[in-house]
Design brief:
The chain is an alpha+beta fold. Helices cover 15% and strands 35% of the residues. The longest helix is centred in the first third of the chain and has 11 residues. It comes from Bradyrhizobium denitrificans. This is Flavin reductase family protein.
C-alpha cells in the first residue's frame, strides 16, 4: 500500500504520520502571559536537535477554529518557555492541560500543579516534573500560516535528584518512567525495554 503525499489531504497525512511515527516524546511546555498567567500545554511533535547549542523543537498549530494557542502568544511576548518531560505519575495531569482553557485560566492553578521558579528566565517550571529545560527562543519558523515550529535553546536543566548519577552523568533508568504519545488520546509506557551489544559493522 502506498500514497503520494500530494494525493492526500492534510488531515489524511496527519493520520498516517501520527499512526506510524511512534512513540513520540511529549514536550510539556509552560509559558507566562503578558498579564502573568502561567500556561501549561503538551505538544507531541517534539524532539531535541543537538547539544551545541542544546536545541529543542516543537510544533504549535492553530486551534480548530483558527485561534492562536496561548503557548505561542506567550512565547512571542516573552521569548522564553520551559520544556518538561512527563512520567507516569504526571501523565493524567499532562493530558488534562491539553484541554481548551481560556487565556485567563492557569492550567497549573486549575489542576493543582506545583510551580517552582526558574533560574535563567521569568517563566516558572512544574516542580514535580522529572526533567525540565529552561529555554529562550532560538527561532520561530512559520509553516503555511497555520503552524509554527518553535526552536528553543536550553539555558538550564532541572533533574529530579534520584534520577541522575552526577558522577557517571547517567540516568537511573529503573527509576525513570517517561510516557510517549501514540495517536488520538492514546499514550504508552516505556517500561518494557531491550538492550543490544554494540554494533560492529563490517570491521
Amino acid at each position: 500500500m502506498q500514497y503520494l503525499s500530494t494525493d492526500l489531504s492534510p488531515r489524511e497525512r496527519y493520520k498516517i504520520l501520527t499512526s506510524f511515527v511512534l512513540p513520540r516524546p511529549i514536550a510539556w511546555v509552560t509559558t507566562k502571559s503578558e498579564s502573568g498567567v502561567i500556561n501549561a500545554a503538551p505538544f507531541s511533535f517534539f524532539n531535541v536537535l543537538g547539544e551545541d547549542p542544546p536545541l529543542c523543537v516543537f510544533a504549535i498549530n492553530l486551534r480548530p477554529d483558527g485561534r492562536v494557542k496561548d503557548t505561542l502568544v506567550n512565547i512571542r511576548h516573552s521569548n522564553a518557555f520551559v520544556v518538561h518531560i512527563t512520567d507516569e505519575p504526571l501523565a493524567q495531569a499532562m493530558h488534562e492541560t491539553g484541554g481548551d482553557f481560556p487565556p485567563e485560566v492557569s492550567e497549573p492553578d486549575h489542576l493543582g500543579l506545583k510551580l517552582a521558579p526558574s533560574h535563567m528566565i521569568g517563566v516558572p517550571r512544574l516542580a514535580d516534573a522529572p526533567f525540565a529545560m529552561e529555554c529562550k527562543t532560538w527561532q520561530l519558523i512559520d509553516v503555511n500560516g497555520d503552524r509554527v515550529l518553535v526552536l528553543g535553546e536550553g539555558l538550564a536543566f532541572h533533574i529530579r535528584d534520584e534520577l541522575w548519577d552526577s558522577e557517571k552523568m547517567r540516568v537511573e533508568m529503573e527509576l525513570f518512567h517517561p510516557v510517549g504519545r501514540m495517536f488520538a488520546d492514546r499514550y504508552c509506557r516505556t517500561n518494557d525495554r531491550m538492550d543490544f551489544p554494540p554494533a560492529n559493522g563490517l570491521g
